[in-house]
Write a structure and sequence with these properties.
The chain has 178 residues and is mainly α. Helix content is 59%, strand content 0%. The protein has a single domain (2-144), classed as AhpD-like, CATH 1.20.1290. It has seven helices and no strands. It is globular and about 55 Å long.
């Protein structure tokens, strides 16, 4: 399963990016605490250091009223965006593509800024945008035409279990007493 690591890493990144975008793009400014707790301030310091910025991205400010939620969301984001099998630059490019296709104003601007901060130039940004546009267009055409996948002959079904092992067997109800 080691050869699948980049795919699992990318899938988790897509999920966490979407979660951050949903929180940030929601009209919930009133949820941001006027005075974040000491616990939230400690998490904010980690966030500022990770992103090398003076401010805290809005997605994290929105959940700061619940320090446990903030810590969990930050933990997931920090883990998924850290260098691993995929580099942080690749992850920011993927997060930018996810944000563009989901029309997230926060995510598009934020991840574009992160790509640039991490050294992705204008040509690199345009390449990510071009690939995103191409696949988004092909997917929209296929959806509109209600095309069925035709990749079955290329790759067979993978019978290996998902990460974490096989799914538990379904529960059966005990027989009822007569």
């Amino acid at each position: 399963m080691a050869h699948d690591a980049p795919w699992y890493e990318a899938a988790l990144l897509v999920g966490v990016t979407n979660a951050l975008n949903v929180v940030a793009d929601s009209p919930l400014e009133s949820l941001e605490p006027a005075r974040p707790s000491a616990e939230a301030q400690a998490v904010f310091a980690e966030i500022r250091a990770f992103y090398e910025r003076a401010d805290v991205p809005v997605a994290f400010r929105r959940v700061a009223a619940d320090p446990g939620y903030l810590a969990d969301l930050w933990g997931a984001a920090r883990r998924v965006f850290a260098d691993n099998t995929l580099t942080r630059r690749h992850k920011e490019a993927l997060a930018f593509a996810v944000s563009v296709t989901t029309r997230s104003q926060f995510g598009t601007a934020f991840h574009l800024g992160e790509m640039r901060r991490l050294g992705v130039g204008e040509r690199g940004v345009m390449e990510v945008l071009g690939v995103t546009q191409m696949f988004s267009s092909y997917t929209k055409i296929a959806d509109t035409l209600q095309l069925e996948p035709d990749m079955d002959a290329i790759a067979g079904v993978d019978p290996s279990p998902a990460p974490g092992g096989a799914a538990p067997a379904p529960r059966t109800r005990p027989p009822e007493a007569p």
